[in-house]
Amino acid sequence: MKRTLCTLAISTALSCSLTYAGSSTTLSIGGTYSEGDYGTETTTSTYYLPVVATYQKSMFSTSVTIPYIRIDSKGSFTWTSVGPVPTLPSKPADLQTAVNSDPFSSSNPTSTSERTTTEGLGDILLNTAYTFVPTRGVYLKTSFIMKVATADEEKGLGTGENDYSLQADLYKPVGQSFVFGTVGYTITGDSDTIEYNDIWYGTLGAGHRLNRKLSIGFNYAYRQPLFDSLDATQTASLFCSYSAKSALKYDLSYTHGFSDTAADHAVTLTVTKRF
């Protein structure tokens, strides 16, 4: 599910402390540009451009994310819950022992030896959450997230299957600073020929409010691999958030990947309007 794990963690951390403030509707428009070799010999560039509508009333919130995806690559990629996965992984390993056919083989209709661009609507994300306050100054947000298979599987823009996730986010302010963490579990949809791993994921991070409008911070994110043959996804991010006039908020982050399954570099900018 991408919005990236980093983006989800940051948005959760910066919003948890405001969940008591009545009802509101927000609209976010953002974009993530990322590039990396994903264990191959060439660089792949991706653009993930989501529109997110969120309704919040007291401790309850619900949102829908509609993304547009663009993949510029040499060869074939499939967009998954962890981002793009090459059709020819650097560690081809044991896919054939787990399924009847290799989903990332060169016979895939999107495979090519030339650099190509694939783009279109991605999988829609539906999120329902409730925030608890187990003790004063501690916020626990519990979420159910469904990835709806709306992307074109033939183009490699999705897996063609629904995914379901349960997620818990913990946020605690400490003076002008704050710490946060996420743990989640995704049940990944399998097709007739492809069997994905169900995966655990999580983040740990901290930040500091420089003033009422500006916050900065960092986090580390980890996600188990979709296949035993691939590496776990590990990233670290720096972020800043600025609350401007007219109920506008700007979030900017830079993410560096430490594994073949992560982008080498990614930059995300999100603009949010509260109504």
Q: Can you offer a commentary on this structure?
A:
The structure is a single chain. The protein has a single domain, classed as monomeric porin ompg (Porin), CATH 2.40.160.40. It is 5% helix and 57% strand. The protein contains two helices and 15 strands. Strands 1-2-3-7-8-9-10-11-12-13-14-15 form a twelve-stranded antiparallel beta barrel. Strands 4-5 form a two-stranded antiparallel ribbon. About 9% of the residues have low confidence.
Features:
mainly beta; 12-stranded antiparallel barrel; 2 helices; 5% helix; globular
The number of helical segments is 2
CATH architecture: Beta Barrel
Radius of gyration: 19 Å
How do the strands line up in the largest sheet?
Answer: 1-2-3-7-8-9-10-11-12-13-14-15
Topology pattern, helix = H, strand = E: HEEEEEHEEEEEEEEEE
What is the helix fraction of residues, given as a range? under 10%
Structural class: mainly beta
Name the overall outline: globular
Strand fraction equals over 45%
Number of strands: 15
Considering the protein shown, what is the CATH homologous superfamily?
A: monomeric porin ompg
**CATH topology-level name:** Porin
- Report how far the terminal alpha carbons are from each other: 26 Å
On the 0-100 scale, what is the average pLDDT? Answer: 85
Low-confidence stretches: 88-111
Please outline what is shown here.
The protein is mainly β. It contains two helices and 15 strands. The model is unreliable at 88-111 (pLDDT under 50).
Topology:
Elements: H1 5-15, E1 23-36, E2 44-57, E3 60-74, E4 77-80, E5 83-86, H2 95-98, E6 115-121, E7 124-135, E8 138-148, E9 163-174, E10 177-187, E11 199-209, E12 214-223, E13 233-243, E14 248-257, E15 265-274
Antiparallel strand pairs: 1-2, 1-15, 2-3, 3-6, 3-7, 4-5, 7-8, 8-9, 9-10, 10-11, 11-12, 12-13, 13-14, 14-15
